[in-house]
Design a protein that fits this description.
single chain; alpha+beta; five-stranded mixed β-sheet; 5 helices; 32% strand; globular; binds magnesium ion
Length: 157
């Protein structure tokens, strides 16, 4: 088995929703990003790539590549899942924490888990989505942006 961790941040900007775990979550702001700015899926991809020492999301899906402008980050997850499978690995479990004051993540966690599990081809009980605030401290506390942490265990199939 191998372990991986990922972290991602996007600043809030103009908009009326944020993408989190593939789910469109209504919010008074959007995020500034080249892709859809889904911090949950970006942290998850970095954790999966990290587990196999395959570099990071920026290496595989560079912001300089126009292909990925406005990209649905679920595409990244599916591509990374294929990289894992090609190397004989499957996901053991993923534990993801979203860090923000708003929007509320809890009401959308079940939908995120379902989408992520589907894209990775695993049972939903292998995917955990949690959320925390930073008690109004720091950039997330000031509602300037949103962050996510992901930890994964991958198993040789
Ligand atoms: Mg990102």
């Amino acid at each position: 088995m191998r372990i991986g961790q990922g972290f991602d941040v996007h600043a809030f900007g103009e908009g009326d929703h944020v993408m989190l775990g593939g789910v469109r979550v209504p919010h008074g702001q959007g995020v500034l990003a080249h892709s859809d700015g889904d911090v949950v899926l970006h942290a998850l991809c970095d954790a999966l790539l990290g587990a196999l020492a395959l570099g990071d999301i920026g290496k595989h899906f560079p912001p300089s590549d126009e292909t990925w402008r406005g990209a649905d980050s679920r595409v990244f997850v599916r591509e990374v899942a294929a990289m894992l499978a090609a190397r004989g690995y499957t996901l053991g479990n993923a534990d993801i924490t979203v860090i923000c004051e708003a929007p509320k993540v809890g009401p959308h966690a079940a939908a995120m888990r379902t989408l992520i599990a589907g894209d990775l081809g695993v049972d939903v009980d292998r995917i955990s989505i949690k959320a925390t605030t930073t008690e109004t401290l720091g950039f997330t506390g000031r509602r300037e942006g949103i962050a996510a942490l992901a930890t994964v265990l991958v198993l040789r199939a």
